[in-house]
């Protein structure tokens, strides 16, 4: 569950805030989302809007601005702001799932942020910036890994306009309104659709993947580490078992097989696990992260921290351990960099 809070962020036009949140969220079956028009909508928890609502209810996000200008025409909700960070002249919020941008306005039926159903293990990026730019260069972003999926709704949205309830073809849940809430977004439907339409170059780039081979940072056999090792993280030093994936990396660094590792303890308080952010020059940036396969089985540290945590999982002689920098939802061979170690 969320372990960081996005507080009242003061924004200026030139501020680069960077990473606001990185963590795992277990979804709820359905929940109510309030738009700034005053209308509440019931959405599945395993949608991008549902994920943000869960973060808000947990106190991780202190404010969420949701627009419903396109509800009547397209049946979708729009993400206009997180905390005090909202769309401006040069930047707006957009969403990527496993590296693919959701064209929520153009492909509203399948990619609407209140319609697109997420799966366990999906990596969701909420980004404030230029969709054609790098995530690491954007104004702000959040990274959420989808945890356990609970029962979801067949139909994600419903709306209430005036005294008449308008329903999609399938049955929907309750809707309430609050006439006194302010309407913050003055953009028209036509302006929103025009801004959201992808150009030809953007469409081509989203369907293109790199064909280059991954950089091999290390490949070979290594003796099974033993005893306790000390590992430095962003929040302090920790003693962990040497026969764990992070313990193995520390030993590789001590033996000059790799030059550097970067580890975060942001999930230590709630999950009891350390998070691998970087090896050598490859660091977590939102689009890509480090993930670990042991004997070709993915360690789901975000779902099973007690057994799969990189500072918890016990390695044994004969194991093949792969560290991959890329998108966990894609095949390991698509990674940008990797280390392959056979434990002796």
General description of the model:
Residues 155-216 are annotated as: Disordered. This is DUF4430 domain-containing protein. It comes from Methanospirillum purgamenti. The chain is 15% helix and 32% strand. It has 344 residues and is α+β, with helices and mostly antiparallel strands. The chain folds into 2 domains: 18-206, no CATH class; 215-343, Ferric Hydroxamate Uptake Protein, Chain A, domain 1, CATH 2.170.130. A 5-stranded mixed sheet has the order 1-10-9-7-8, covered by helices on one side. A hairpin with a 2-residue loop joins strand 5 (78-82) and strand 6. The longest helix has 10 residues, at 48-57. The protein starts with 17 loop residues before the first strand and ends with a strand.
Distance between the termini: 37 Å
Count of beta strands: 22
Low-confidence stretches: 1-14, 154-159, 161-211
Name the helix and strand elements from N-terminus to C-terminus, one letter apiece: EEEHEHEEEEHEEEEHHEEEHEHEEEEHEE
Note the total helix count.
8
Structural class: alpha+beta
Over the alpha carbons, how many angstroms does the gyration radius reach? 22 Å
Layout of SSEs?
Elements (H helix, E strand, L loop, with lengths): L17 E8 L4 E5 L5 E5 L3 H10 L6 E4 L3 H4 L3 E5 L2 E2 L5 E6 L2 E2 L6 H4 L11 E7 L10 E7 L12 E3 L2 E3 L22 H8 L3 H7 L8 E8 L5 E6 L2 E6 L3 H10 L6 E4 L3 H4 L3 E5 L2 E2 L5 E6 L2 E2 L6 H4 L11 E7 L10 E7 L1
Parallel strand pairs: 1-10, 13-22
Antiparallel strand pairs: 2-3, 4-5, 5-6, 7-8, 7-9, 9-10, 11-12, 14-15, 16-17, 17-18, 19-20, 19-21, 21-22
